[in-house]
Write a structure and sequence with these properties.
With 130 residues, the chain is an alpha/beta fold. It is 42% helix and 21% strand. It has one domain: 3-Layer(aba) Sandwich (Rossmann fold), CATH 3.40.50.2300.
Length: 130
Amino acid sequence: MPTNNNIVSIVEDEPDIKTLFYEVLSEAFNGISIVKFCDSVIALEHFRNNKENYILVIADWKMPKLDGIELLSRIKKLNPKVRSMLISAYEIENHPNFQRYIEEGIIDKFIQKPVAMDYLCQEVNKQIQA
């Protein structure tokens, strides 16, 4: 995987969604390395090894091993400057700690699934420009 420039990571345990996001973002953002992972533990290890190059991590909430919130929390501890997006089909706004995750900067943006690809690209662009 390329690691010599800015990295945007997609961490999604659904292979079809991961591949769709990867293809759309790879086409939309030239000059940025888009990487994809089904396994959040492997994604965290890649982040540890390349944390200075990362600009954004997009994580699904419900995943085996590390869920998206735990993954983003660990990532923010390693590099607080990296931007984070949590994506979920679940109603996470009703989660008792959701607002705290936003206030603490663990989640910079939440997107509800299903998501239109144009909207995903707009929101990714906002995060990498932030």
